[in-house]
Amino acid sequence: MMRLRRASVIGALSLLAWAATATAECAWVFWLEAGDPRTHESSSRPVSGWGTREACEQALTQKLASDSERDTDMEVTVDRQAGRPRLWLRRKGHPEPLAVYTYVCLPDTVDPRGPKTK
After folding, report:
1. Residue 115 pLDDT > 90, yes or no?
2. What is the pTM of this model?
């Protein structure tokens, strides 16, 4: 009985170690969600893929910085309080946003668009 219990524990630990290794080795995808606050419509699309989470987060930070500086006709507000960086685009002097961009890095096993239907 003791051998069976020990074998079960060893098997469970081996399975956990294998699962942790598989998770650590997955690729990461940088996603962009573009939303229109006037129509409440949004769409998500993958921007790029990366081998590590750190590389993906670095690309996200660079994209956020370049997008927030690109257009001189627009007023850009970066919202980091939402848990995911959001970029609000407004015409200068207008209170309503024209677009909202949300950035996120997710493992390649996660699709923010939800499951595909057949």
Report:
1. no
2. 0.67
